[in-house]
Amino acid sequence: MTTAAQVQKMVAPLLARNPDLVLVGRWIFMRPLTHFARGVLIGRTGSANVFDPYWAMIHLFEAGSRFHFDFGDLIANSHSPHPGFWSMEQPGIAEALIEAIEHQALPKLRAVTTLDDYLAFVSRHMFRHKLFDWPSVKIIVDVAQGDLAAARRLRDAHRPEWDDDPSLAERIRDKRHRLRALCALLDADDRPGLAALLHDWEAITVRNFRIEKFWTPTPFPLELPPPG
Questions:
Q1: How many of the other CB atoms lie within 10 Å of CB of 66?
Q2: Where are the beta strands (DSSP E) in 10-160?
Q3: Residue 189's Cα: distance from chain center in Å?
Q4: Is this prediction's pTM over 0.90?
Q5: Selection from 148, 131, 227 nearest residue 193 by Cα
Q6: Closest CA to 148 of 185, 98, 113, 114
Q7: Please, are residues 132 and 123 in contact by the beta-carbon 8 Å criterion?
Q8: Helix, strand, or coil here: 43?
């Protein structure tokens, strides 16, 4: 697997000419970081000299612990006869990687600048169901967007599914606990409480991703006056 030091050396020219990019471990994040993150991972493999680069986006306000690649793609190596293969032994590998990131990933990431942009991107993605068709995710996004009527419909339809069950894994129980807390605030029509809860969850994700110093806390649409 490639080391963090090798990654840092490879991407240094990329960071130098793109001041909105920052390196955190093996991740290249794009600033600003608000309610969602946009990034490129130089991923490990089981081989000492082989790596897998991906670009992806994820919203941050679910108290997440991992940056999943659901909404993104592998970065292809156009300088190799095997486009999915990236090896440190390939001549000019750093230049090839930077070229691929700048042409394949950065335009897509830079096109998404607002939460609405992010949701529009996800709506067109092959894995859109992991947000729009999963009630445990969609209810949180609906609250963030200020669509409390839609959130309450999901609460009414799915609340029993989020009851505690000691037989389940701790991470699933924690997720259900958070959803029950969200539902209780919906019951009380407590918009400031809902906003505070989402900000807390966002801060947890930011800490888990180790991007605190690059994060810009901003109001959710839930907190803004209605347009017009």
A1: 9
A2: 21-24, 27-30, 36-43, 52-59, 71-74
A3: 28
A4: yes
A5: 148
A6: 185
A7: yes
A8: strand
Cα separation values, 33 from 7, 53, 97, 159, 176, Å:
22, 20, 23, 31, 27
How far, in Å, CA of 115 to CA of 96, rounded?
31
The one-character DSSP state at 33 is B
Domain layout of the chain by residue ranges: 4-113, 117-223
Q: Report d(CA 140, CA 146) in Å as an integer.
A: 10
- Tracing tokens 């001549």 back to the chain, one arrives at 91
Place of tokens 């490990």: 44
pLDDT tens track for 143-195: 999 999 999 999 999 999 999 999 999 999 999 999 999 999 999 999 999 99
Eight-state DSSP code of residue 207: H
Q: Side chain identity at 42, as an amino acid letter?
A: I
CA distance 6 to 96: 15
Residue 4: its pLDDT value, please? Answer: 85
175, two tokens = 């997720």
Q: Are 205 and 62 in contact (CB under 8 A)?
A: yes
What's the order of all strands across the beta sheet hosting 27-30? 21-24, 27-30, 36-43, 52-59, 71-74
Three-state DSSP state, 30: strand
